[in-house]
Design a protein that fits this description.
heterodimer, A: alpha/beta, SH3 type barrels, Rossmann fold, Helix Hairpins, six-stranded antiparallel β-sheet, six-stranded mixed β-sheet, about 55% helix, about 10% strand, B: mainly alpha, about 0% strand
């Protein structure tokens, strides 16, 4: 039977993993290997994808992908429970003495020359205590790398409870060690290039030659995490295994025999709790030691010499001998290169530059291994690694009972991902977020802010009058700077509040559930469930949202997601909506705001369907994702994020908006002869903006002031409001425009080109042509939608009248 | 224009130039994303 035929609660053993290419490799890397037991936990509300338990953790998979995995059903009596004792395997080949690496003593007698001799090619010859040291932090997604990075460096990087928060490597200096730099790499499951973040990490480790690696592993899921550990050890770089979340493991009755694990792996193993800052000093001691003394892993051979006649063992060693000279030339570790050649890694194959004859020999060796082992090449390598891991874990890991966190997650998931409750829960949660932000708490905080700014403006105005400041300078300060910056500052509470809720969704682990629940809907639009995360972040800010799209494993999905992000209304547009809603729709401000968000989403859906049928034909990539346990967000993290967002917004208010306010004031106060004008319609701004005004005439927005504000909005969306308020001054806008036209303007602002920062990020991610495409596409769509909105509005209005 | 008006105007101009210079420098350094808080490498302007 295939995996998709499994009933909820049933357990089966994997017989064969079908499929091809990097996806199949990813299945294997995630532990879906022949012989592994999988239990079907549940289906998403619309019957797809499915949630499985394999190797003690939860994985999501689409039903169509599950069809390629052959399984045999296990009767309940044969299922292995976590508490069950498994007969010990033969460990004789694993036996080694404790390496004593990273601890001082045994290897301290070595002099620098000896260390140099043993040093890996590409490293600097010696790393004495005074030399610069570079440490790379590598580990699976969501295992606490960024938390450890923040502890080590005292940095304030954002951490979340969602796989793939870190999308680009970040670096910092270790506290108390000015010559030690640490790099936080994106989370990866293996060194096979599946997603772009895996490529970023692998390229960094192989090309940049960090002095040592800190491999951080989640103690509560050590088996899956050690799969990457073995691959890192194959690189021969000095490394330390930091077993994180030990407090959680031990709190649930689990234990790891650290000394024994060190002896079996041949690398230092340090138990830590990154969140509580426990064990971090000891970790630093060990890692600095292995870095300075070039103490590489004592074991790189994980294949059992007797397993299936030693088929995999002989195959790997034969290829290692055959490619030894190529590895030396290419600067690749032999064991790593051999494994990757067997797995069919094209990048490594090209780097090695094997001759035709050598390639054929390698192929013959692999085919022979496949025959003897009875498994295909990728599965054989994955199986070899997982067998070794199982052997080590049997000997050293006392598995905990089901953790409190996991039990709690199961209970919460009954509602939040339940068949009938998931979608209503999603709608209710998002509705509550927007209601609290735009209707109750947010508005109260905004009024408070408005009162403060009004008071400050009043006091300043009186002071300027008292000091007899010249009218032009007075106007510059009050009508230019105060009006511009002040109008935008009012919206700070709304923006902070929306970011607060988005960070809560991410930190609790609910964001991953949204991806799980929404996958089937998004697939109809040509996207995968994982795209929901960048799209939701897009409601905060387009820039991190575009960056977050890097977690998507296919270029097609990434491009399409990035093109749709501008349709998610970012917080910078809130001031525009709130400004006009308060003036034109005071009774229905909340409804107008909500309708704009909905229009953005609906237009996004239409564009997605068009893109799916034109530029992005084909199927979205499979949805293979880990579901983390729910966690209580740390107040420190949330406060840090809020502070970051507030600082960022204030930074913008006092840079871009401050500059734009002054420039707009100058342009609207002077004409081309630099003479102060009485009537703003004679100003430079009026003349320049007037040239583009005919374009907006069909929308009823042919007023040069509106055009000038929209152009300024390209710098930062908030400047639309500051410009309008500077240009219109105390003029009552309701006397100039009808509510229908203003709603059309709001639709235009919602959809027209993203700000310059977002476009620059899109350019960096997709290239200049796509960035230009986004600008043009968004402007055309915005104009058309605004036109249609006004037409419909007028039609409804005339019928009502 | 009295002295206090000239002083105030000078202050605004200096502030404008200073903020403008820093903004342009940050844009150049961070390859265009200086006004965000994305935390990308090299974007030290917004760290």
């Amino acid at each position: 039977m295939t995996l998709n035929e499994l009933q909820i609660g049933q357990t089966a053993r994997i017989i064969r993993v079908g499929g091809e290419g990097s996806l199949r490799q990813h299945f294997l890397d995630m532990g879906m290997i022949p012989g592994a037991e999988v239990t079907l936990i549940k289906y998403a509300p619309m019957g797809d994808p499915m949630e499985l338990r394999v190797h003690g953790y939860e994985l999501t998979l689409r039903v169509t992908d599950a069809k390629v995995i052959e399984t045999s059903l296990l009767p309940p009596s044969q299922c292995r429970s976590d508490e069950e004792t498994v007969p010990l395997q033969d460990f004789s080949w694993l036996e080694t003495e404790h390496p004593g690496l990273g601890e001082g003593g045994r290897y301290h007698e070595r002099d620098e020359a000896q260390a140099e001799k043993e040093g890996r090619k590409g490293h600097s010859p010696s790393q004495g205590s005074g030399k610069d040291i570079t440490l790379a932090l590598a580990g699976n997604q969501n295992c606490g790398k960024t938390t450890l990075f923040n502890q080590l460096t005292g940095a304030n990087q954002h951490v979340g409870n969602f796989p793939g928060v870190t999308v680009e490597h970040k670096y910092g200096i270790v506290k108390g060690h000015p010559n030690v730099k640490v790099i936080d790499l994106p989370g990866i499951y293996s060194l096979s290039p599946y997603t772009s973040e895996e490529i970023v990490s692998r390229r960094y480790i192989l090309d940049e030659h960090p002095t040592a690696l800190i491999n951080i592993a989640d103690a509560t899921n050590i088996e899956r995490n050690m799969y990457l550990t073995l691959q890192l050890m194959e690189l021969g770089v000095p490394m330390v295994l930091a077993v994180n979340m030990m407090d959680e493991l031990e709190g649930n009755g689990g234990h790891i025999r650290i000394n024994e694990m060190e002896a079996l792996l041949g690398i230092p193993v340090v138990p830590i709790s990154a969140m509580k800052n426990e064990g971090v000093d000891e970790l630093m001691e060990h890692v600095l030691h292995v870095a300075r003394y070039h103490e590489g892993p004592r074991r790189q051979d994980f294949c059992h010499p007797e397993d299936h006649g030693g088929a995999v063992h002989r195959c790997l060693h034969a290829i290692m001998h055959l490619t030894e000279d190529h590895c030396q030339r290419a600067g690749l570790p032999q064991r790593f290169a051999a494994c990757k050649l067997v797995e069919g890694d094209r990048i490594v194959e090209q780097t090695l530059g094997l001759t035709q004859n050598e390639r054929e020999m390698v192929e013959h060796i692999i085919v022979q291994m496949e025959e003897e082992r009875g498994l295909d090449r990728q599965a054989a390598i994955a199986d070899m690694r997982f067998q070794f891991i199982e052997s080590v874990c049997q000997r050293t890991v006392v598995k905990p009972q089901e953790s409190r966190e996991h039990r709690r997650s199961q209970h919460i998931d009954r509602i939040l991902t339940g068949r009938w409750t998931a979608l209503p829960a999603f709608v209710a949660i998002m509705g509550l977020v927007f209601y609290l932000t735009f209707s109750t708490v947010g508005v109260w905080l905004q009024d408070l802010m408005q009162a403060g700014i009004d008071w400050f403006t009043e006091v300043s105005d009186q002071a300027l009058t008292r000091w007899k400041i010249a009218p032009a300078v007075h106007s510059l300060i009050i009508d230019g700077v105060y009006s511009g910056v002040g109008t935008v500052l009012v919206f700070l509470p709304l923006i902070c509040l929306l970011f607060f809720f988005l960070s809560m969704l991410e930190d609790t682990g609910y964001m991953a559930r949204i991806a799980f629940v929404m996958d089937k809907i998004l697939r109809r639009l040509g996207l995968s469930g994982r795209s929901i995360v960048p799209l939701l972040i897009g409601f905060g800010c387009s820039v991190p949202s575009v960056m977050a799209s890097r977690t998507l494993p296919s270029e097609r999905d990434r491009r399409m997601t990035i093109l749709l992000i501008p349709f998610m209304s970012c917080t910078a547009k809130i001031p525009i909506y709130a400004f006009f809603a308060a003036a034109f729709f005071p009774e229905k401000a909340g409804m107008v705001m909500a309708s704009l968000y909905i229009i953005g989403i609906v237009v996004g859906i239409v564009v997605a369907l068009l893109l799916k049928r034109t530029l992005f034909r084909g199927e979205p990539v499979p949805f293979v994702m880990e579901l983390p346990n729910y966690r209580m967000p740390l107040a420190r993290n949330v406060m840090r994020l809020l502070w970051d967002k507030a600082r960022d917004f204030l930074g913008r208010a006092f840079t871009v908006i401050f500059l734009a306010s002054i420039v707009v004031w100058l342009l609207q106060t002077f004409d081309f002869h630099l003479q102060m004008v009485e009537d703003a319609s004679q100003s430079m701004l009026a003349k320049v903006a007037g040239m583009a005004a005919p374009l907006f005439k069909p929308l009823g927005l042919g007023n040069w002031r509106i055009v000038a504000a929209l152009v300024c909005g390209f710098m930062a969306k908030e400047t639309v409001v500051s410009t309008l308020s500077a240009l219109f001054g105390s003029v009552n806008l309701t006397t100039l425009f009808s509510p229908v036209v203003i709603f059309g303007l709001l639709v235009f602002c919602l959809l027209y080109t993203p700000c310059v920062a977002a476009i620059a990020t899109i350019r960096r991610e997709l290239g200049g042509r796509w960035a230009l495409f986004v600008v043009v596409m968004q402007c055309v769509i915005a104009w058309l939608c605004a036109y249609v909105t006004i037409l419909i509005g007028n039609l409804i209005g005339s019928q009502v009248l | 224009m009295n002295l206090q008006s000239i002083l105030l105007l000078a202050l605004v101009v200096v502030l404008f130039l200073f903020v403008g210079y820093r903004y342009v420098r940050r844009q150049k350094r961070s390859r265009g994303c200086g006004s965000c808080n994305c935390g990308c490498e090299g974007c030290d302007g917004c760290q």
